[in-house]
Amino acid sequence: MIERQLRLRNYRFTQDPETADYVLGAALLLDNSPESKNIENFLQLHPMVGDTRGNYPRGTLMVALLKPGEISQQSVLWRGAIQAFNMGESLPSELNRPRIEAFIHKLIEAVPLAR
């Protein structure tokens, strides 16, 4: 889904890192573990993302475009995140997929067009 949406924004995908103009990173975080916090801190996504509150935990989808080479905060060209409540079994699967696709579409439409 993410790849399809990025192709619509003129990005092409390759398996050869030597020819890549960008590196795509994505993470789906479903908890507040130390590993999840490390990813959030690396991408400097606060206050875009918040902590879990209420009856349902939040899931966070993070996407980043980076310069090829060494991964560092200076190599991040664009980053974004979107959060949704994880409804678990309370939401039928036929409703869950379009909901997730809508979240992904909303997030990726903020990615700058590829040159």
Structural summary, described in words:
This protein is α+β, with helices and mostly antiparallel strands and 115 residues long. The chain has one domain (2-108). Helices cover 28% and strands 23% of the residues. It has three helices and three strands. It has helices spanning 2-7, 34-43, 93-108; strands spanning 23-29, 58-66, 76-85. Strands 1-2-3 form a three-stranded antiparallel beta sheet, with helices on both faces. The longest helix is centred in the C-terminal third of the chain and has 16 residues, at 93-108. The radius of gyration is 15 Å and the shape is globular. The two termini are 21 Å apart.
Task: Give the helix/strand layout.
Blueprint: H1 2-7, E1 23-29, H2 34-43, E2 58-66, E3 76-85, H3 93-108
Antiparallel strand pairs: 1-2, 2-3
Number of strands: 3
Helix content: 25-40%
Large-scale geometry? globular
Distance between the termini: 21 Å
Number of helical segments?
3
Largest sheet: 3 strands, antiparallel
Give me the side-by-side strand order of the main sheet: 1-2-3
Low-pLDDT runs of 5+ residues are: none
The computed structural class is: alpha+beta
Strand content: 15-25%
What is the alpha-carbon Rg in Å? 15 Å
H/E element string?
Answer: HEHEEH
Q: Domain count, please report it.
A: 1
- Average per-residue pLDDT, rounded, comes to 82
Summarize the structure.
This protein has 115 residues and is of the alpha+beta class. It contains three helices and three strands, in the order H-E-H-E-E-H. A three-stranded antiparallel beta sheet has the order 1-2-3, with helices on both faces.
